[in-house]
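16801_t:CDS:1: structure tokens wanted.
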Amino acid sequence: GADDCGNGYHCDKGDKCTSGGGCIPLDAEKCPNGGYCDKGSVDCGH
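Answer:
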């Protein structure tokens, strides 16, 4: 069950589309640097 992002990308179930194209996990959050990371990840600078 893939979701069509509307921009040529398809995400697997449990992922969501990003505005720039591509997929991230549903529980990912946006980082201050504009990227994405897993929720609570140290990579996000929390």
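The CA atoms of residues 15 and 24 lie 5 Å apart. Residues 3-38 form one domain.

Cheers.
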